[in-house]
Design goal:
4-stranded antiparallel beta sheet, 124 residues, 6-stranded mixed beta sheet, mainly beta
Length: 124
């Protein structure tokens, strides 16, 4: 069973930076596309960044140019570097992914059970 453990959240001032981590176990991590999602209070969960097993990336317009997704396959970990954060980035952040095999691509539909998430609060 795949387990996802997010960490690195906290309280940060507007304009500040945070680096989130998500450690995955129970899957062949390197063949997974991975993504970061967030859920703000009273809103649905949205995909903000994803990275294919081959390394290509996609970002939601709201975070483009400020957030960077990366991965370390040796550590089975995906990261989200968050720069110039704003109050609207306040949310619980989650990771998830999906296998990319036989030429298939993963486009963001979560396939694993959610982890506990990590809270990011942007406030002065």
């Amino acid at each position: 069973q795949v387990q996802l453990v997010e960490s690195g959240g906290g309280l940060v001032q507007p304009g500040g930076s945070l680096r989130l981590s998500c450690a995955a176990s129970g899957t062949s991590f390197s063949i997974n596309g991975m993504g970061w999602y967030r859920q703000a209070p009273g809103k649905g969960r949205e995909l903000v960044a994803r990275m294919a097993s081959g390394g290509s990336t996609n970002y939601a317009d709201s975070v483009k140019g400020r957030f960077t997704i990366s991965r370390d396959n040796a550590k089975n970990t995906v990261y989200l570097q968050m720069n110039n954060v704003q109050p609207e980035d306040t949310a619980v952040y989650y990771c998830n992914g999906g296998r990319e095999v036989y030429g298939s691509r993963w486009y963001g539909t979560p396939t694993y059970n959610w982890g506990q998430g990590t809270q990011v609060t942007v406030s002065s």
